[in-house]
Amino acid sequence: MLSTITFLLLILSPIIIGAPSSSFQFLDCGGPEAIVKFTDVSISPSPVYFDNEGESTIVYKIASDLPAETSFYVDTWTGNRLSEANNLKDDERTPCLFGPACEFSICDWMTMEFDSCMKYHNSESYCKCPVKAGIRSDVGEKFIMASQSQFPSWFNSGTYTARFTIIDAARKQIGCLLMSGSIATKSN
């Protein structure tokens, strides 16, 4: 499998992907002080289709080891909101795609996904906490998008923007990734 962030891209790609065109875009929104910097992110096809195969790539640099208490949360909005990166409004977010909790411990997530990560990377140091400094690269990872029936009823074909915010134990932002794209139902 994949790194923590890559796995999230695959799980959340329906959030970040919508209207039929080559619409996937990303922005590193972490600022100059961020420990985690995203340099390349892609998801294809664009749009991504429910119940269909896709492929993702993510490359990011971690400037220093991440503390074990590091977590991330995911916010989602309808439409392409990349131009509003610094002005996204909390009251315009969609409900959390995962139910009541959209915040996850990175170490808990990596523990849960350890076997899948090892199949792809074959490196315990890459797949376990603490997450070490360095460049992480997950290129051309295949995935199957879940069917629309596996998502909340509000989540339909369309364009969405998702923000992944990485925070330390003091809740200080140490990384941020903003992505926008489309998801659609494939016609037969």
Distance, first to last CA: 30 Å
Q: Report helical residue fraction.
A: 10-25%
CATH class: Mainly Beta
Mean pLDDT: 83
| Count of the separate structural domains | 1
Portion in beta strands = 35-45%
Give the CA-based shape.
Answer: globular
The value of Rg in angstroms is 16 Å
Characterize the main sheet: 6 strands, mixed
Return the structural class.
alpha+beta
Low-confidence stretches: 1-22
CATH superfamily: Ganglioside GM2 activator
CATH topology: Ganglioside M2 Activator Protein, Chain: A
Number of helices: 4
The overall strand count is 9
In sequence order, what are the helices and strands, one letter per element? HEEEEEEHHHEEE
CATH architecture: Distorted Sandwich
Could you explain the architecture of this structure?
The protein is of the alpha+beta class and 188 residues long. It has a single domain, classed as Ganglioside GM2 activator (Ganglioside M2 Activator Protein, Chain: A), CATH 2.70.220.10. 17% of the residues lie in helices and 37% in strands. It contains four helices and nine strands; from the N terminus they run αββββββαααβββ. Strands 1, 3, 5, 6, 8 and 9 form a six-stranded mixed beta sheet that branches. A three-stranded antiparallel beta sheet has the order 2-4-7, covered by helices on one side. A hairpin with a 5-residue loop joins strand 8 and strand 9. The longest helix is centred in the first third of the chain and has 13 residues. The protein is globular and about 45 Å long. The N terminus is likely disordered.
